[in-house]
């Protein structure tokens, strides 16, 4: 049976609910911005905007285009470089609400769904930083909204919108492949299968492949760094993870109370609801989740799936318990109590308040450190300020003839990115690195006789490449959550043993070390 295609109308009250939550969400992010510096990966993503390409070593190309636009402001402010992240977080709320409406939810369901997103630590930091993660969540939500509309109405426009958003999802993070696996559910049901055949869905597949082809060609031309990255990821992280442990951490990340009230009921509602259009959607979610679990993904890999499940849990409550109007008040009160966990997901407290009120609950002892702070953006304002000042001091101490062609080698892409973004205010030379996507941007000119090298505590990393190596500064970081990052070291390196071209060859298989 085909349902008449029509846009579900929002009432003024619905719009007001969404507006209030969007305002609250943006306010929380802006408060967090005021308390934070740049997280290390953000510095890499910002740098991609200076090197537009059809692909990068760690991720697809869209993040580079977004960074390019933000870089046009010529600012090194966290507010500017998180503009698109905050916009994405607002759109996520709007389209979770719209999906809830399409699935049959009313205002109470929308209220519960958006409140659960606000109080979830998982959707604090992951939607705060300028990283592919938040855009992946957005395009999963947008794609799922169009999937819901297609399964419900069987219309051609929803199918093409779905195609467009899947392309965008694949262009920002490769986890979109899990969503595509879920789409195969459409072929398992006669109703949706016939609609796909009638609308010549092979055209959508061709368009999808053609639009993603530039990135595939880039991967081929660069010896598929994606495979090298995933190999390194499984070697160092994913193979050591437990699926049960990951599930437990996921439920904590979402907020234990929200997990109990919304996610558990979402599973019940999805698989017990008898609406015709719910079955393909349920199997789609199941396939995506199963494939992701089989791949032993980290807890945050599941965040997009949680976002598309939340409306179902909210509708369950609206259509059962909340039939008694007064029940909305105790449930809301419970969820508001759970909002105490918001500071565990984003820096809404100042750093000093975090150390006294939040850190004791997630304390981590690091030998040689004072605090093992989980998220580095809490303290990176001061960290990078101190780093730039020390680099400036070393650079100024060089003879004039050595300054002319001097470059800075950042062992970690975050260090190189910090120099290139923040070092401008200190008149520092540009930095390069062989780590991650920085490998693609290494200079091609003659290697200067003098290099200032910056690393964490990683042993004799630079020694094999120079005849002269002098440790000139050591910068202590009492807040590092691992022993390696307790100290940054600055070296003056002279008399290189090879040119830059040879250096690139030496690091060809070490990009992700």
List the defining traits of the structure above.
single chain; 513 residues; alpha/beta; 2 domains; 5-stranded mixed sheet
Approximate helicity band? 55-70%
Task: Report strand order across the widest sheet.
Answer: 2-1-3-5-4
Gyration radius (Cα, Å) is 25 Å
The secondary-structure class comes to alpha/beta
pLDDT < 50 runs, ≥5 residues: none
Gist?
This protein has 513 residues and is an alpha/beta fold. Helices cover 56% and strands 7% of the residues. The chain has a 5-stranded mixed beta sheet.
Write the layout of secondary structure elements.
Layout: H1 12-34, H2 40-48, H3 62-71, H4 78-81, H5 83-102, H6 107-119, H7 122-125, H8 132-153, H9 156-170, H10 176-183, H11 190-198, H12 202-221, H13 225-236, H14 243-254, H15 256-272, H16 278-294, H17 303-319, H18 328-337, H19 351-357, H20 380-396, H21 400-403, E1 407-410, H22 413-422, E2 431-432, E3 450-456, E4 466-476, E5 487-496, H23 500-506
Parallel strand pairs: 1-2, 1-3
Antiparallel strand pairs: 3-5, 4-5
Structure description:
With 513 residues, the chain is α/β, with parallel strands linked by helices. The chain has helices at residues 12-34, 40-48, 62-71, 78-81, 83-102, 107-119, 122-125, 132-153, 156-170, 176-183, 190-198, 202-221, 225-236, 243-254, 256-272, 278-294, 303-319, 328-337, 351-357, 380-396, 400-403, 413-422, 500-506, and strands spanning 407-410, 431-432, 450-456, 466-476, 487-496. It starts with 11 loop residues before the first helix and ends in a 7-residue tail after the last helix. α2 crosses α3 (62-71), α5 (83-102) packs parallel to α8 (132-153) and α15 crosses α17. It contains 23 helices and five strands.
